[in-house]
Amino acid sequence: MNCDHDCGSCGENCAERDPKSLLAEPRADSHIKKVIGVVSGKGGVGKSMVTSLLAVAARRAGRSAAILDADITGPSIPTAFGITERPVSRDGGLCPVYSKGGIGIMSLNLLLENATDPVVWRGPIISGTVKQFWTDVIWGDVDVLFIDMPPGTGDVALTVFQSLPLDGLIIVTTPQELVGMIVTKAVRMAEMLNIPVLGLVENMSYFRCPDCGGKHEIFGASHVEELAKQLGIPHTARLPMDPALTALCDAGKIESFEGDWLDGISAALA
Questions:
Q1: Which of 40, 102, 122, 153 is a Cys-bridge partner for 47, taking CB atoms 3.0 to 4.6 Å apart?
Q2: Phi then psi for 188, rounded to 5 degrees?
Q3: What pLDDT does 10 receive?
């Protein structure tokens, strides 16, 4: 009803549209086996950290991995990996910058004159930039490309969901009941656009006391299993509040983390 036939700005799942008609092609020299989006319904839940940990877990399992940082106005992936060098151009495209562990990374922060410069852009420009990171970057041979999405269900999420051939989503949340409601919104958007949700990660799930070894659920009891069952999400994981992990992110040494919290989800993405 009242359709203007502009499918690029519409999230409706109507019969008149071929879902594949809006997909953008990567460069001919980019061969990407799987594309996984990492999303959250709200900011501050640790989505970028989970994206980084999943990429590192994939590399440790012997798979080639890359990260497309779609959080244009709040990019933090380069910081987590300690990357400051700028991408170089080749054959009309941009080459990702590689971490010490061999993870290819493309982020707008690597293209700015100063990493602290704000990106004051309107939605269409931001969405176009994310799409260009897919079409113009020379990703090469990649087993799994992770897309670190901005929070929410706005323009960029719609662009990625409709323009990139996503194989699935990982949703990041925290224990608060309010966040569970926001997770449901993200799941419903994925359902509207026929994108499967493969996993639910509860960050800041608990704190392990270094003195007594006890597990303390500071933000309340975990509901991740219950929520995943309710929403039909097959895989879950719980990440602790770990000062050592935070310190590694701040120091650009995320690839040195110790922990198997995400190994189950990582294996399910193989």
A1: 40
A2: -65, -40
A3: 57
Ordered by start, the domain boundaries in the chain are: 25-268
- How do beta strands 93-94 and 197-202 pair? unpaired
CB 97 within 8 A of CB 87: yes
With a cut of 70, list the residues of the chain below it in pLDDT: 1-21, 178
The label of the residue with tokens 């086996």 reads 33
Greatest alpha-carbon pair distance for the chain in Å reads 63
Residue 245, classified by CB atoms within 10 Å of its CB into exposed (0-12), middle (13-18) or buried (19+), is buried
Q: Could you tell me if 221 and 175 are in contact, meaning their C-beta atoms sit under 8 angstroms apart? A: yes
Beta bridge partners of 106: 68
Q: With CA atoms as reference, report the closest residue to 54 among 141, 150, 172.
A: 172
CATH H-level, domain 25-268: superfamily = P-loop containing nucleotide triphosphate hydrolases (3.40.50.300)
CA-CA distance, 54 to 60, in Å (whole number)? 10
The closest alpha carbon to 213, from 186, 240, 182, 251, belongs to 240
The residues pairing with 172 across neighbouring beta strands, listed in sequence order, are: 201
Q: Note the pLDDT of residue 57.
A: 97
Strand arrangement of the beta sheet that strand 104-106 belongs to: 97-98, 104-106, 65-69, 141-148, 31-39, 168-173, 197-202, 235-238
**pLDDT, position 106:** 97
End-to-end CA distance of the chain: 41
Amino acid at site 171: I
Torsion 262-184-190-77 (CA) sign: negative
Strand, helix or coil for residue 53: helix
Query: Could you count the other beta carbons within 10 Å of the beta carbon of residue 211?
Result: 5
Q: Do residues 148 and 69 make contact, with C-beta atoms less than 8 angstroms apart?
A: yes
Residue whose structure tokens are 């707008």: 108
Helices (H) and strands (E) counted in the chain, each on its own, are: 8, 12
147: which strand partners?
A: 37, 68
